[in-house]
Request: fold
Amino acid sequence: MWTADEIAQLCYEHYGSRLPKQGKPEPNREWTLLAAVVKIQPTADQACDRPDRPVRVTKEVVSMGTGTKCIGQSKMRKSGDILNDSHAEVIARRSFQRYLLHQLHLAASLKEDSIFVPGTQRELWKLRPDLLFVFFSSHTPCGDASIIPMLQFEDQPCCPVSRDWANNPSVDASDNLEAPEDKRKCEDSDSPVTKKMRLEHRTPDSMAHHQSFGNQESGPNSPDVSSSNLTAEEPAAVTGMAPGGAKVVDVYRTGAKCVPGEAGDSGKPGAAYHRVGLLRVKPGRGDRTCSMSCSDKLARWNVLGCQGALLMHFLEEPIYLSAVVIGKCPYSQEAMQRALIGRCQNVSALPEGFGVQEVKIQQSDLLFEQSRCAVQAKKAENQGRLVPCGAAISWSAVPEQPLDVTANGFPQGTTKKGIGRLQARVQKPVTYHEYKEAASTYQRAWSALRKQAFGSWIRNPPDYQQFK
Reply:
């Protein structure tokens, strides 16, 4: 039907042809991250085909986002006119919600074909059964999915390991470790960037979502990889031996911090530095953020859907992703499964229509040309330090104002004087908080998820949701 490389290539081509130069990284100096939602639909002639033929589909990018930053707590605004989280995954999901809202308008007005059909309940809609959506990200999501084991013998970044071992490192080693030549590699082993990564042991997050707005740049500390630091004292830490007898000497470290109420990282040198499976907030230096990591948000969307609370007023059932595709980067299949699915797999007693999805997770071998890894490989040594792009681009497959470029959470070019005039507008005289709380089935599902899996999830104070 489709491959991970086809999804990645489609998104990269869309980024190059449909997104403006404004908001993209400055060549040889800046890098960014990319995320998108792709609609998969069988071709119109499928009914005439023989059943034994492969299903032919059309693939269309319906939303896209770029960005690497989020604002600190002190910059949050009660007026609702600033984006707290501008990581690419979150921007792409916001753009997807715009697309869904437009499609609901088409369905209700009966003017054009829509992805929605009438539900069994009056004035509610559901997704056409022949459609599915694939989420693409050029990099591993920040947070739990980025805690990837480093094996002693590997050049870069890590071999796949068994799911049992990833969730419980004390499991006896088995012989299902892939050969080193089958590893996914960000660059050739002899390239300058690979050698640099081997020396510095950079984390997936440090190469991606590692900075908040302002001067809150944060990077990883060089980990101590001495094998004498390995312990097995904490079952939730990535420690011990990988399948095949390879020693885990360290982990790629995430800059995302454990939320208050969680057990917290051990901070021990080497592979025991992190505990896995915990809720985390995006990193900031000095000014702590209130934005949950992208790993946590993707896990939440995998239970509650991508539509959010507001659109559930018009939908009979949530809108789920069928697959997640990650671009070429440091990656662990087991860490992705644990972060996006495993942490919620025992959640039960959800309202009708909601459930923990067995989303398909794959990685592409195609590198995003404006990722940190790619830009670093092309940059000359004398061209200065590489920095993340300060802007975020949002694109949605809608006819009116499909593009939006923001910086520091505001539309790009907004002055300090103009910030005071920005207002979030809703059609009815009711607050954003009241609209969200009124989506009763969604709120019941969210309550069940918090009680059973995500009890420490940070919720913004109600004062920040009272805008109209």
